[in-house]
Amino acid sequence: MSKTRIAFIGAGNMAASLIGGMRAQGVDAELIRASDPGAETRERVAKEHGIKVVADNAEAVEGADVVLLAVKPQMMKSVCEALKPALKPHQLIVSIAAGITCASMRAWLGEQPLVRCMPNTPALLRQGVSGLYATADVTPDQREQAETLLSAVGIALWVDEEAHIDAVTAVSGSGPAYFFLLIEAMTAAGVKLGLPADVASKLTLQTALGAALMATGSDVDAAELRRRVTSPAGTTEAAIKSFQADGFEAIVEKALGAAAHRSAELAEQLGK
Ligand SMILES: NC(=O)C1=CN([C@@H]2O[C@H](COP(=O)(O)OP(=O)(O)OC[C@H]3O[C@@H](n4cnc5c(N)ncnc54)[C@H](O)[C@@H]3O)[C@@H](O)[C@H]2O)C=CC1
Ligand SMILES: O=C(O)[C@@H]1CCC=N1
């Protein structure tokens, strides 16, 4: 990885967080290049990370070992088709675009080795998690390059089937929003119980942080941690019983199913 040359196509939020993560890990600025049509974006990312950012995508990929596509899914077809003549067969393409399948990218780019990823927005704080899928022609070295790249902003996990990227999208890609929804709802409920809004908000946020740190740092699972909070006939038990009587697990299962279904549906629509 230390000598891998990487070109980012699109230098927006996700690309900038990946570039920042790589630079923080000591990757040489000379090894990273990016392209973006926005003059302000080019200037900002170049200044912040000390890398070269150009306007021309073909110029960015020249001499790169890995080309990371970080444009919006709706832009992928036109960007890929325009990039195709500039690519060399050995260049690994890594896509973070939601809902764009390897088959679609193959149709637009030709027979390049591909890694399709689904990161999430905590990548901005280097606390992300990504699911990665590789096509069969990706070499072990290229798998390592992709994994190292995504690991710069969090944890990277491989899946063996491309369809599992829809499940990854449902769990972790969209997942931060579910926790934000719970934070919103708990804060609102605290206010209904009489707390000032800022107090309800701080209590909720610190509880979310504390629970996440306990769950990630513990050698017992979430069910056991929950049991330890839940005194028999106590307050937590009253709340958990209420959640479960209203079908909490079924609500979560149905919501994640809707996200996975939408991910597959988007792939169908955007792949045309
Ligand atoms: N936001 C999220 O939660 C997640 C986003 N993603 C994916 O990451 C990708 C990037 O998303 P963001 O960084 O949030 O978007 P963004 O809008 O911040 O960045 C996209 C960048 O692409 C540039 N661009 C537009 N046309 C271009 C072209 N023809 N050539 C080169 N660059 C071009 C834009 O100027 C912009 O700076 C998307 O495909 C999205 O699906 C993946 C996982 C999670
Ligand atoms: O909501 C979406 O479609 C994208 C994919 C994962 C997070 N945001």
Automatic annotation (TrEMBL):
Organism domain of life: Bacteria
Assigned keywords, A-Z: Amino-acid biosynthesis, Cytoplasm, NADP, Oxidoreductase, Proline biosynthesis
All residue ranges annotated as the Pyrroline-5-carboxylate reductase catalytic N-terminal domain in the record: 5-99
Binding residue positions for NADPH: 57
One GO-annotated biological process of the protein: L-proline biosynthetic process
UniProt EC number: 1.5.1.2
Reaction it catalyzes: L-proline + NADP(+) = (S)-1-pyrroline-5-carboxylate + NADPH + 2 H(+); L-proline + NAD(+) = (S)-1-pyrroline-5-carboxylate + NADH + 2 H(+)
Name listed for the protein in its UniProt record: Pyrroline-5-carboxylate reductase
Gene source species: Pseudomonas graminis
